[in-house]
Amino acid sequence: MDTPDSSARYTPGHGHARHERTILPERNLDMLRAGAVVLLILRQFLITADNAREFANWSGAAGIAAFIVHTTVVLMGSLERDGAATRPGWVGRFYLRRVWRIYPLAWLVIAIVVIAHVPSTLHGTWSIVSPVQLAANLLLVQDLSLKEPVLPALGTLPFALQISLLVPLFFVLARRRSWTPMIVSLAICCAISALWTYGVQPMHVIAGMKRLPLFQLLAGVPMGVMAYHFLYSRERVAIRAGLAPTLSLVLLAAAGTFLYYDNGWLARAVFCASLAAPFVMFDDAPASALTTFANGVAKLAYAAYALHQLAIHFAFEIFADQDATVKLLIAIVSLVIASVLAHRYIEKPGIALGRKLLGLRHSSARTK
After folding, report:
1. Helix, strand or coil for residue 235?
2. Residue 222 and residue 274 in contact, taking contact as beta carbons nearer than 8 Å
3. How does 34-73 read in b/e, with b if 16+ C-beta sit within 10 Å?
4. Disulfide engineering: 300 pairs with which of 139, 310, 335, 339, CB 3.0-4.6 Å?
5. Any idea what DSSP says for residue 4?
6. Helices 53-81 and 265-281 sit at what angle, rounded to 10 degrees?
7. What is the mean pLDDT of residues 37-53?
8. Tens digits of per-residue pLDDT, 299-342?
């Protein structure tokens, strides 16, 4: 992935110059994205091994929280580079780019599952996919239609689409000088998440709530919005040198523990806040072997997530007689190979087609 425009410079204080781009901490974002996909894939491996179920649940919740923060920050940076909110039709342009970013790989996975009759669970049996269920999966509206995803990993992709629908609104709020709109939006999102938790309980059923599981995660979105606001305004929280790393680790550990024992909407929101906090306390990480590795993982993150269950099925079904360690290695190697191929021949052409339809020339801006 290319780095952002190096001509942008750091200027403290609020007054963001019109000709300057917001400087995103690209290496920090890469590590966050890499950590998110590792946590989500680890969850599936733990479930496959039928081991550490509680940690597997935490791993999945933590990975989703990390993706929420990462996606929010990166998409707002992408909107800014595309000229929002002054460019005519900027909202439609953004949605079209997201469609071509998400759908092609999802359709590939769905096609493999349906054609090869891949069961939704390891060692399970194939269930015939009805036309309505197939259509819901192809459109990525499984939650809204109350239809099962053909593969569990696809069940979270509607969240990515739905968050994308909200990003333009949050983008406008994040670029205002006043904190009031963001605080109000945070209160609204928390209220919606709390209402969802209340409304899906059997004794307090609210019609339609089960169709909107994103509402449980909504309180975490403003955390990424506020992180972007700090980056956009060139502000930093004043913390004594040397104290910031310790404070960040303490916050992350406390929030992670809260999430492990609770896993409700408030714990998820607090964990999102602990992930967003370093963006307002630290500059970007220096280049190193770790950040280079994280960049490579981040590039393949979407492909790896979309394909990881297929890789597990391949290794643990085809090589069922092998030792567990051998099957694990086969799953990892096959996942890496499949992710590289999918990124090169599915994701990148899809992104390029979206840009071509919009009349965009290739630029150094990163596309997430």
Report:
1. coil
2. no
3. bbbbbbbbbbbbbbbeeeeeeebbbbbbbbbbbbbbbbbb
4. 339
5. P
6. 50
7. 87
8. 999 999 999 999 999 999 999 899 989 999 999 999 999 999 99
